[in-house]
What we know:
17 helices; mainly alpha; 2 domains; 60% helix; Hypothetical protein af1432
Amino acid sequence: xxxxxxxxxxxxxxxxxxxxxxxxxxxxxxxxxxxxxxxxxxxxxxxxxxxxxxxxxxxxxxxxxxxxxxxxxxxxxxxxxxxxxxxxxxxxxxxxxxxxxxxxxxxxxxxxxxxxxxxxxxxxxxxxxxxxxxxxxxxxxxxxxxxxxxxxxxxxxxxxxxxxxxxxxxxxxxxxxxxxxxxxxxxxxxxxxxxxxxxxxxxxxxxxxxxxxxxxxxxxxxxxxxxxxxxxxxxxxxxxxxxxxxxxxxxxxxxxxxxxxxxxxxxxxxxxxxxxxxxxxxxxxxxxxxxxxxxxxxxxxxxxxxxxxxxxxxxxxxxxxxxxxxxxxxxxxxxxxxxxxxxxxxxxxxxxxxxxxxxxxxxxxxxxxxxxxxxxxxxxxxx
Length: 383
């Protein structure tokens, strides 16, 4: 790696881990964070969790895992260009969706509704809960024992935590200075998430037949790309044309972020990462022009993909599965042994509800379906 900028988050000055460990002779602190995340159970489960389309087997739709890998690759590219720590950006990107429940945002909506009287549910906070409490791998402690900087990035990659109720959900959030912005590496992971799903959800929408290549001409940011591709390669398959569209969109968006962010960095002239945290604004952003274009693109995707009857139909089925599982399990906790022990030891209804929420949030789509069918003797049919 080339020399990092003075405003980067530097591994040698990390604020460390909750539980002290010996330094590695071959890896930095942030490389160790990345490796701990990749080897976690929660990370493997992402392979079987919905991104947008529920029935992904054999259809090559993105899963929560493939999306996460795409986010991490984009985050590394931007980090390298801006001379900040690629390993930290990658670690945050790899962890950012670990708390996502089955069935994508449909599952998240249901759990939040069910948990309202006990503090609600939000997948970013659940990701933090996963890496600090729910992973059970190490002999010495629960959780992955990640660095302060990695935990901060997972918590604040979308900006400061100013909601007092959110601060109360995990007792150590104040330890992560919730009201400041995160370092540039976390900000990069957040914008890489936007770039990845913008491009790849278009690809999945085309693959699912919800949109056609010609429909993309309606979107200002895509129209010149589609026009160029159709002119240069009119006879190749639509699948290959679609790939050209998404890769060119990713390239254009990454280049815009790098240019816009460099201008912000020059104006701010931060001398260290603390000045980044206290800048009072997000530094890694799209340009004003791309912000407008990206908003229009999202509107197109909501109209034609996310709010399509096909996607909403499966979302409703996923919501039904999660809702009925939650209602049943909180009254009749038929749980695996370790979860049952925790439930039996819980001292109040709030703690018992959170245990059921944690259990469901950690499920894969298929595990939730299988458990639902076992409990309710009702076959689940997804498209």
